[in-house]
Design goal:
The structure holds two protein chains of two kinds. By secondary structure, chain A is mostly helical. Chain A folds into two domains: about 45 residues, no CATH class; about 230 residues, Orthogonal Bundle (MetI-like fold). Chain A is about 75% helix and about 0% strand. In chain A, a hairpin with a 7-residue loop joins strand 1 and strand 2. The radius of gyration of chain A is 25 Å and the shape is flat. By secondary structure, chain B is mainly α. Chain B has two domains: about 70 residues, no CATH class; about 180 residues, MetI-like fold, CATH 1.10.3720. Chain B is about 75% helix and about 0% strand. Chain B starts with 12 loop residues before the first helix and ends with a helix. The relative contact order of chain B is 0.14. At the A-B interface, helix 2, helix 5, helix 6, helix 7 and helix 9 of A face helix 1, helix 2, helix 5, helix 6 and helix 7 of B.
């Protein structure tokens, strides 16, 4: 502290002025950061070490919420399994699908912005509206999807009532709403210098070889971006899962994901301590996942010699 | 921003060559390409088609197999009935004037000011603080959800829009980042000239930077408005009195009321009718501001 005061006094008047002005400009963020991030972060960790139902005072119980989740709550492991199942299929499938679509749209296509809009719109309309439609579309008795299947003489598929199919149904909806990734991929593809393709053609590369040796390496930074964003988003999925599968995550909790489970504990069972412990577990998983992606990215992401 | 030049066809040389001398094979590829796009478009739009057409059906048209693709007669009254019988005028006013507009306004102002500080004023410690700001984007909302709920509850703010609107007055890390990137692209000479003329930093922001930053601010406003319009979880946690509901909770209430009473009459037509009405402004907004949307989303993805 003395060092910083000393430094402050050594500064010229001009420097001191710009420091004060700078801090003044970013002061809303500093206040908000302390009030809505730093304080809740510590508070959340403290609550996770208590039993707290909002009515009686919190009781400090050490790591009992965590040990209960890990060793005495079979539902927790089911939720972890469901969430990993959902994330590990939804993320790569959405990523692969949107990359292929973006490449298709990057060819000489009439009406590119129309097709791009079609892919993008499901991502920007209210999730509650699309959840209501999917709930209706996938209904076993009068849903349109089953209606169409049956009119072709095929059996109806119990998307929402068969525990085996609830997670795949949510994954299907998530792929339908992956428009963001398509738009970002397409913008990335349009940034690939044409000279690279020209050089590849001179070297006798065919379409597939151009895709494999120019398009893919040049897209790796964008792939990494979409991978991280998709991973974080999928891990935190709430609205569609909660609305389509209901409070309990469908039959036998088969599609109960992490965030709806956390919400259920906090606001239906008023178990604030357990919910906060869940939040910290989620936080740690997301941080580890993101670090892994960035660490391994050095091996497969190509930055065009910039970095 | 040139990255998303719509007018510029992006053609790889091999495809250019192909289109020049169309062999039988390449015609086949072209047909296949459009066939794939056609099937995708049809399946991607089908849920919206179904939402709209189911909205104007009556019970006998909704619950039949095979499904009715074109309702005849169409019950256009469903839109007005579903809306007014379920108090949606109030929910719409809440969504717009209590939530989306104040949140948008506060976000644009506060994020603009903070981003200016991070982008255009040189001061010791700035880069470290900006890095901290970036890490904030990664923080899952679940971690702060419970403590913030308890805090706002203790302040007596439940059943008001304060918990949803007030935090916007302190900037949002993601939008600060976006605006900072944009402010950095503006030439420093503009500010220097004004500084020599004795303008204050705030004056420079207000008179020189802001007029140039309108497109970037529009992106922020658009995305923040959309976020508030679409928000379901926030209102679900903080609002439990019906007269405070925004549209998203109004739809949820309609769904729950129907399943609670077991009264299945016009369940889906009404749900689909209000959903159609709530989706429509977003579609219109997208239609008019497509470039802004696409630029916003691709700039953050590519340059970020």
């Amino acid at each position: 502290m003395r060092l910083t005061t000393a430094r402050f006094e050594q500064m010229t008047r001009r420097d001191r002025h710009s420091l004060m002005t700078g801090l003044l400009f970013i002061s809303p963020w500093i206040i908000g950061f302390l009030a809505f991030t730093v304080f809740p972060l510590f508070y959340s960790f403290y609550i996770s070490l208590t039993r707290y139902d909002l009515i009686r005072d919190p009781v400090f119980i050490g790591f009992a919420n965590y040990t209960e989740l890990f060793f005495a709550d079979p539902q927790f492991w089911k939720v972890v399994y469901n969430t990993f199942f959902y994330v590990s299929l939804s993320v790569p499938l959405s990523l692969g699908f949107s990359f292929l679509i973006a490449n298709l749209l990057n060819t000489n296509i009439v009406g590119r912005s129309f097709f791009r809009a079609v892919m993008y719109i499901p991502a920007i309309v209210p999730a509650i509206c699309t959840a209501m439609v999917w709930l209706f579309l996938l209904n076993i008795q009068y849903g349109a999807v089953n209606g169409i299947l049956q009119s072709f003489g095929l059996p109806a598929i119990p998307f929402l009532s068969n525990p085996e199919l609830t997670k795949p149904s949510l994954i299907m909806v998530s792929i339908w709403a992956t428009g963001n990734a398509v738009v970002v991929f397409l913008a990335g593809l349009q940034d690939v210098p044409r000279s690279l393709y020209e050089a590849a053609v001179v070297d006798g590369a065919n379409g597939w070889q151009q895709f494999r040796h120019v398009t893919i390496p040049m897209s790796t930074p964008v792939i990494l971006y979409n991978l991280v964003v998709g991973f974080i988003g999928a891990f935190q999925e709430f609205t569609s899962a909660y609305l389509i599968m209901g409070n309990n995550g469908g039959p036998l909790n088969s599609a109960l994901l992490f965030s709806p489970f956390l919400y259920m504990n906090a606001f239906q069972f008023l178990r604030m301590g357990k919910a906060s412990a869940l939040a910290w577990i989620l936080f740690v998983i997301v941080v580890i996942g993101t670090i892994v992606f960035f660490r391994t990215s050095a091996r497969w992401v190509y930055y065009g010699g910039e970095k | 921003m040139s990255a998303i030049d719509e007018a510029r066809p992006v053609v790889t040389p091999s495809i250019q060559r192909r289109t020049r001398k169309m062999g039988a094979g390449s015609v086949g590829i072209e047909v296949l390409k459009y066939a794939v796009l056609f099937v995708l478009t049809a399946s991607w739009l089908f849920p919206f088609y179904w939402m709209f057409t189911s909205a104007v059906k009556n019970d006998s048209q909704v619950y039949t197999i095979p499904p009715v693709l074109i309702p005849n007669p169409a019950y256009w009254n469903n839109f007005g009935d579903a809306w007014s019988k379920n108090n949606f005028n109030l929910f719409a006013l809440n969504s717009i004037f209590r939530y989306a507009l104040p949140a948008t306004l506060l976000t644009v102002i506060s994020s603009g000011i903070v981003a200016y500080g991070f982008a255009r004023i040189r001061f010791p410690g700035r880069d470290i603080l900006f890095f901290i700001c970036l890490t904030q984007i990664m923080l899952p909302w679940q971690v702060t959800m419970v403590p913030l709920f308890i805090t706002f509850k203790n302040l007596g703010w439940l059943n008001s829009y304060l918990p949803l609107v007030l935090p916007n007055a302190f900037g949002s890390a993601f939008f600060i980042f976006m605006l900072r990137q944009f402010f950095l692209t503006l030439p420093e000479e503009l500010s220097d000239a004004a500084r020599i003329d004795g303008a204050s930093e705030f004056g420079i922001l207000l008179r020189i930077i802001l007029p140039l930053a309108v497109p970037a601010l529009a992106v922020v406003a658009l995305f923040r408005f959309l976020g508030a319009w679409n928000d379901f979880l926030g209102p679900l946690i903080y609002l439990n009195q019906e007269h405070m509901y925004p549209l998203a909770l109004g739809i949820d209430r309609l769904r729950r009321n129907i399943s609670a009473t077991g009264n299945n009459e016009l369940v889906y037509p009404y749900l689909m009718a209000v959903s159609t009405i709530v989706v429509t402004p977003i579609l219109v907004l997208f239609f008019f501001a497509q470039r802004t949307f696409i630029e916003g989303i691709s700039v953050t993805g590519i340059k970020g």
